[in-house]
Amino acid sequence: MLWTPSAERREFANSGLLNDLEGTARSQRISVLHQLVENGATIDELMRATQDARLAHMLLEAALSPRSATYTLDEVSKLSGVSVDDTTRWFRAMGRGISKRSSAEYSADDVRLACLLTDYRELGLDEDSMFATVRILGRNVWAIADGAQSLLQDQLAEIGRDHPEDALRYAEELKRFAKFHTQILAHVMAVNLQQQIKADATDEHTPGAQEVAVCFADLVGFTALSEQLSAADLGQLAERLDTLTTAVVEHPVRFVKMVGDAVMLISPDSAELCRATLDIMAAARQEGLPALHAGIAWGTAVPSAGDWIGRPVNLANRIAAAAGPGEVLIDEDVQRKLGRYFPEAYESAGQVRLKGFHDRRQLFRLRA
């Protein structure tokens, strides 16, 4: 419905949308309501949103929605050159919702997402691996968004309750926040890809190369936990593991970093690293943390900007993923070093196939 400004204000007032508001607060609320009407909101929707203190949420949603043309799924398919079935599979893999084919609910960004599938195919990438990678990305993007929402929800609740007129300014901050996270993701992904490529080329002849034992220990079932706990609670679990590890680790073992819910340790002494890992597992049980599992590997690695690069880093990570709850698995090189002095410290865990490695690996289980 088209109203004159004065008629619109009367309608707002008659509907109780301006109750108890005077002066500047009243003018600002009229501005908020006007923008929502311009975006298609009805008076009934505004009344319900006012009663539920959701005006700010409505304004944020409108401000963050794409302003460009919108497309149906068929139109996205035509513009991208990707079939409707493949577009649907691609979007679902990355966690993008699927609308009815007749609904024009997709933006130019969605068209670009669909075009990525064509780009990847032109690179000759394996289709199954490509979709698997995108599913991982989709799950983690949802986790990042959940973490961002937890970080901002208290401020949003205050705005929604007391200052809905501040929502536009807040929307701009959210856009900047999203852009900042995009930059972080791009940087972290580039650095990690660079490190993995460099790791494959690292050997004893690489400048700065050292023989070290590497350990990864992380929470078992972290994906399931992420579906049960808030991002804030998950963050507290990781923080507790960080604090506990810092307290336990002593020279010559070094606490390198946290990677999500995992701790990475390194040492030139494999026996000391094994001992420290078992101590961390025991301390975690005493602290009531979810069960940990860990993997330890020996090999050539290179220090790089506070981190370490090399095959034992990747191998330890894969071994940890293969370990059961409360279990510490080690590779043959670590076992041989322990066998000289601690022949009773381990038992065979059999031949295990590890992701990213062609042959099965003989692993051993540390005894507590």
Automatic annotation (TrEMBL):
Keywords: Plasmid. GO terms for molecular function: adenylate cyclase activity. Residues 213-320 form the Guanylate cyclase domain. GO terms for biological process: cAMP biosynthetic process; intracellular signal transduction. PROSITE patterns: GUANYLATE_CYCLASE_2 (PS50125). It comes from the Bacteria. PANTHER family: ADENYLATE CYCLASE, TERMINAL-DIFFERENTIATION SPECIFIC-RELATED, PH-SENSITIVE ADENYLATE CYCLASE RV1264. Belongs to the adenylyl cyclase class-3 family. This is Adenylate/guanylate cyclase domain-containing protein. The lineage of its organism: Bacteria, Bacillati, Actinomycetota, Actinomycetes, Mycobacteriales.
